[in-house]
Amino acid sequence: MKFFKPFYIQPRFFYCGIAIVVLFICSYFLPILFNVAQLSILVVLTFFFLDFLIVFIGKNRIEAQRILPDKFSNGDDNTVQINITNNYPFITHCTIIDEIPVQFQVRDFELNLKLSPRKTKSITYNLKPTQRGEYHFGSLNIYASSVLGLVAKRFTLESNAMVPTYPSFKQLRKFELLNINNTLQDYGIKKIRRIGHTMEFEQIKDYVLGDDLRTINWKATAKKNSLMVNQFQDEKSQPIYSIIDKGRVMKMPFDGLSLLDYAINATLVMSSIALKKHDKAGMMSFSKKVENVVVAQRRTSQMRMILESLYNVKTDYFESDFSRLYANIKRHITHRSLILLYTNFETMDGLNRQLPYLKAIAKSHLIVVIFFKNTELNTVINENADTIQQVYDKVIAEKFAFEKRLIVNELKKYGIYSILTTPENLTIDTINKYLEIKSRGLL
Question: Against a cut of 0.85, is the pTM above it?
């Protein structure tokens, strides 16, 4: 009944009708109730037409505006605000049915509000997207009724709006604020004393007043017949690449988000932290081929480029080609870099197929393989096994959890760093490892 244009009959009217029908039935036994039933019909119809008239008199009696953010933050609560103005000269009861995007799969969305005459009121609700892309809103439907509540008029406003959903920029802002306030250690990030001081050669340039005389390049000076000095870049200006495996192993869901989206959110935060620490941030994704490449730089537009690239990362459900990733890294990343590889290995067999390529990458770069604990297995492991089937399930779960730890040890044997983490701790564990590497001067 709610979508019968341009109005619908309130349930209260039907309740009155049911009561009248009961009176007519009872009048068969008590004839005096027949007159009461006739009078009741007259009263209800009178109030119905009176309510109909006062609700439908005039135009633009209800005005509303849906206020949407420029973009949604994936995996976070995003606020939608609706401002409603009551132009009726009486208190109005409003039922708001906003046609929210189909991705949320909510079919019973409804808000209720009571408005004083000639007043404006705001109401908000939250939406939590779990995938990136475009979210299209339909019409904003408001059903207004008087205090009689027998009939409601439908107002259709604010139709056809679209909001893009980007990787979690709310999480990014939180960590940026922590970095500014130097409170990252409150979240488990420890400060590690920096050992030594390393410099990497960058170029030979003309001597200018103030340059360190110890950096004079005498061979270049003799060739050019003018003072030339070696210019170095500090290790804090190292390239940091976040590489995201977007194959089918990353499509596994956890708390509404896929592992791929957790990796994307972590990449966004990690890139921002690297730039704040004066490093060069870059990224790429791969599956059957390498895509979404952003070369590691420190330019002012770098975060915008990374954000746009992350927005377009989509899984293709294929098995990822690590050989193509290795070839691309060897060809395009010529400077020694920190490579944060977000992927997922479930078994030792899965690792052994890709281990030769990881070892080859580790010869030229410092690589950190980041993969995920299966938190659902912990639930099975911690439960008491009362039946044979539960015993089998528990043994299998413990086997898979043990293989994850074996993978960590296997990577360590070849000098490859790794992070085995839960999806919700992915970002903080990655930042921890990055700061540890910088503090120990491993690059």
Answer: no
